[in-house]
Structure formats: structure tokens, C-alpha cells
From TrEMBL:
GO cellular component: cytoplasm
GO molecular function: LPPG:FO 2-phospho-L-lactate transferase activity
Compartment(s) of residence: Cytoplasm
InterPro entries registered for this protein in UniProt: CofD, CofD-like_dom_sf, Gluconeogen_factor
Protein name stated in the entry: Putative gluconeogenesis factor
Source organism of this protein record: Tomitella fengzijianii
Length: 347
């Protein structure tokens, strides 16, 4: 007999540490969670595996599995193993165990979705982790500020290169331009009660989901409540100097017809009345209302799981479980805040 999932059906779209934060929050009030994950990483362990084996980069997918793994001793052990990164100077140096396991399963089963489902079963994942496309993607960005003439636009290709460019990113696109979406991801969006986009690297983890035509069409047609979660701060390189308002503006530039219900912003990041007015006008382009909450771990640029969970649960129309309810958490061991160096976000 199949167990009835606890909570609303939630689909979270993103990648890396931003998606990890969302999933860690959402699992506090729902077991019916699907992660739809970017597949454009070309740095670190993921980039090496992608280049050598011509498969979907596994790093962001591995991190999503870790976020949704069963909150028990066995799930914790497997999560720690998958996140373990080999040290030393040999061929394995820098690779995470989980990336290699996913790569091996993908070769054996000849299907990345089947590989993810198999590993999810080992981890006791309640929900699913899916790639946003069936093929590895490449990010291409139009960038200014790299030449003496500020009007000159250069094309920068590759997620790491885009995330670390000293220029100003104006627009991104995917290569190939019309990638096939994963059917299971489309179905999950169609059946969702709540859709969450962001936080995360804006140009390389968040916006790309709106550039996959089938995925975008499903998002537009969905009757689910749509929540856009903004970053706590601009990222060095990719969105350096961006205001909260600017993040919404570039999202609208890439997906002018996109509609959302809620824009969730950190209250500490947008304090001035005038700036909040600007953010409100930017959200109006999506038909969304801005909600401000204290979302960060004090003194950091990291989302607090409990605070984010409380906000998202409210938008989903449910209450968080009682504080005394046992529910262990897996910890993602990273150096520094969510604003991490490019190529390491999900590698």
C-alpha cells in the first residue's frame, strides 16, 4: 500500500546551494517535493565528468538528493558519503563520491532519470529529483564592459565563465536553444500545488529554467501558486552591483510573459521605502505581490531553513510541524555563505 505524502505537492526549480536551501526548507512541511535541477554546470568535478563521459553534470543533482534524503541515521550516513570529496593529487582528487555514483548509474541504466530514481531509493528520498532537460546544456551570455568601448557586446560561453566574468551580463541563452525537457518534470509541474523558483545564481541556475520552452510552457499553464524567492545579496561576478529590483527586471527581460503570485524578499536586504516601492513595481510585471521576511541566518548571506520554511509554508496554506517533532537535518558542509565561487556551487 502506497503511503499518502504529507503536505502539499511542491516543485522547486533551481540549482546548487540556492536549491539546497529551498529543499531543506520545504521538506519541513511536505514529503511531496520534486526538485527540477539545472544541468549546465561545467566546472569542478561535474565539469570533468561531463566532458569525459558526455552525460548530464551530476553535482547539482547530487546536492538536491542530499537535501531530500531520509532524516534518519542511514540516510545521514549515505548523504555524508555522497557529499564526501576525495583529497590528494591523483585522478580522483576533487571528485565527490556522489558524482561518481550518479555517473556510474547513468552509464549502467543508460538513463539519467532512472539513475536518479535508483539513488533516491537508496537515500530514502521522499519525492523526486529530476534534471530540467534530457541533455547537458551550455550557458551563453551577452556581456558588456570587457572592452574599452562599453557598448561592445561579447559572448561568453560556459557556466563558470559567465559566473566569473568581470563584465556585466546583459542576457543569457541556452545551447542548444530548444532542449528537450524531461517529461516527468513537466508532469510534476502540472500536478503541483506550489512552484518555487530561486534563490540561486540568477543567470546560471534560476533564469535557465525559463529558457527551456516546454518547461516554460508548463510553468505558464500551471494553476499552482508560484513563488519567486530572491537572493539575499548580489553575487560577485555574475550579478555584482545588482539591486533587488534589478534581479526582477532581468527575470522579466528573459521571460516577459511569466506570471507569479508571490515575490519573497529578505526584509534586511531591502529596508528603504523608496527601494521597496521600486521592487513592488518590478514585481507588478509578473502580477506578483512582494512579501518581506527576515530570511537569513543573522550575520550571513545564508538562508535560515526555519525562516524560509515558515514563509513558504504560509504561501502553501499549511503550518509547520510542532517544534518537538523529531526531524533531523542533513548539513551541507561548504566554506562560507551561499554566495560561493563559480564552478563549486554544485560540482
Amino acid at each position: 500500500m502506497n503511503r499518502v505524502p504529507r503536505g502539499p505537492s511542491v516543485v522547486a526549480l533551481g540549482g546548487g546551494h540556492g536549491l539546497f536551501a529551498t529543499l531543506t526548507a520545504v521538506r519541513r512541511f511536505s514529503d511531496d517535493v520534486t526538485a527540477v535541477v539545472t544541468v549546465a554546470d561545467d566546472g569542478g568535478s561535474s565539469g570533468r565528468i561531463r566532458s569525459e563521459l558526455d552525460i548530464i553534470p551530476p553535482g547539482d543533482l547530487r546536492m538536491a538528493l542530499a537535501a531530500l534524503a531520509a532524516p534518519d541515521e542511514r540516510g545521514g550516513l549515505w548523504t555524508e558519503l555522497l557529499q564526501h570529496r576525495f583529497r590528494g593529487n591523483g585522478a580522483l582528487a576533487g571528485h565527490s563520491v556522489g558524482n561518481l555514483v550518479l555517473a556510474g548509474l547513468t552509464e549502467l541504466l543508460e538513463d539519467p532519470v532512472a539513475a536518479l530514481a535508483e539513488l533516491a531509493g537508496v537515500l530514502g528520498v521522499q519525492g523526486a529529483v529530476l534534471p530540467m532537460a534530457q541533455v547537458p546544456l551550455e550557458i551563453a551570455a551577452e556581456v558588456t564592459g570587457l572592452e574599452d568601448d562599453p557598448r561592445v557586446v561579447r559572448t561568453i560561453r560556459g557556466q563558470v565563465a559567465v559566473a566569473t566574468t568581470p563584465g556585466r551580463v546583459r542576457r543569457v541563452r541556452l545551447l542548444p536553444g530548444d532542449p528537450p525537457a524531461v517529461p516527468a518534470a513537466i508532469r510534476a509541474i502540472q500536478e503541483a500545488d506550489v512552484l518555487v523558483l530561486g534563490p540561486g545564481s540568477w543567470f546560471t541556475s534560476v533564469i535557465p529554467h525559463l529558457l527551456v520552452p516546454e518547461l516554460y510552457d508548463a510553468l505558464q499553464r500551471s494553476s499552482a501558486r508560484k513563488v519567486v524567492v530572491l537572493n539575499l545579496a548580489a553575487e560577485p561576478g555574475e550579478t555584482a552591483g545588482f539591486s533587488t529590483e534589478r534581479h526582477l527586471q532581468v527575470l522579466a527581460q528573459h521571460a516577459p510573459d511569466f506570471r507569479a503570485d508571490v515575490v519573497l524578499a529578505d526584509a534586511a536586504a531591502v529596508r528603504a521605502r523608496g527601494e521597496r516601492d521600486n521592487v513592488g513595481r518590478a514585481a507588478d510585471r509578473f502580477g506578483a505581490r512582494v512579501h518581506y521576511r527576515e530570511l537569513s541566518v543573522p550575520g550571513t548571506f545564508t538562508h535560515d531553513p526555519e525562516r524560509l520554511a515558515e514563509a513558504l509554508a504560509g504561501f502553501a496554506g499549511v503550518a509547520l510541524p510542532e517544534p518537538g517533532r523529531p526531524r533531523s537535518e542533513h548539513t551541507l558542509h561548504v566554506a562560507g555563505p551561499e554566495r560561493t565561487a563559480a564552478g563549486t556551487e554544485g560540482d
